[in-house]
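Design review, sub-item: ligand-bound model
Attendees: FS, YL, KQ
YL presented the inputs for the 3-methyl-2-oxobutanoic acid complex:
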Amino acid sequence: MADLRMNVRRLQALRASGTPIVALTCYEAAFARLLGDCGVDLLLVGDSLGMVVQGADSTLPVTVDDVAYHTRCVAAVESPALIMSDLPFGSYQVSPQQAFESAARLVAAGAQMVKLEGGTLMARTVEFISERGVPVCGHIGLTPQSVHQYGGYVVQGRNEDSVAQLIADAIALQEAGARMLVLETVPAPVGHAIRDAVDIPVIGCGAGPDCDGQVLVLHDMLGITPPPLPRFVRDFSAGGGGVGEAVRRYVDAVRTRSFPAIAECYP
Ligand code: KIV
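KQ shared the predicted structure:
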C-alpha cells in the first residue's frame, strides 16, 4: 500500500509546486484524527501547550516530558499529517549533545521533526541534530521562549538591522541542515524577504501571505482562547458548523491564500 503520510520530501515538493502548507498545533489524539481527516499537512505539538493545555502564562515551564507525552497522544492515531514537536525551553540551549538527547526522546515518542527557537546561534546545534538523522525546523522572528528578553510579545523585524539579522539567521539555519522554518510575528514584507532568501519551506505565524504555509494555535483559531489575541489570528469557528467545519475553512483559506488577509498582517 502506498505511504500517504506527509514527510520532509513532500513538504519540500509542496513549496516547489507553490501549494501552501497547512499546519496547526495539536496536543492529543482526537484532534490529531480530525485535523488529519480535514487535510491539515502538519501537526505541531507546540510548547504553546503550556498556555493552552496547562494554563500557564508562557511556554517556559514546559518540559521534554510534557512534550513527549503530548507527542505520544498525537502519534497514537493514524494520520496522514507530519508530526513536529517543540524542543521546550532549557532542553537544547546548553549544548548540541543536550539538544540531541531531548530530540531523541521526542522522536521516540512519535515526532518526525523537531523545532527549536533561535537563528545563527543555534546553527551548530541544528547541524548536530540533523547529521544524526533528525529533521529540524528553525523558529525565528518572535521566539516566545525569549519573552522576558523582549519584555513582552513584540513584533520583530521592525528595522533594517533586525531584518538583516533575520535573513542571516534563516540562511544560517538552512546551511546547517534545517528542513523548514517557522517565522513568527514579523511584518508581511519581511515574511516575503525571508521566504525569498531560502529554498526550504517557510511557515508563517503572523508573517504575511507570502510564506510557503501558515500555522496557528488550534485553540486560537477555534475561538476558544480568551482575548486579546494577536492580530494574525482569525476565529474560524465564526461561520458555525462545529469544529470540523472550522478546521476545513482554515484548510481552504490557507490553500487559497485568502488567509491571512491584509488586516491580519503587520504592515
Ligand atoms: O508552540 C507553538 O504553538 C508554536 C507556534 C506558535 C508556531 O511554536
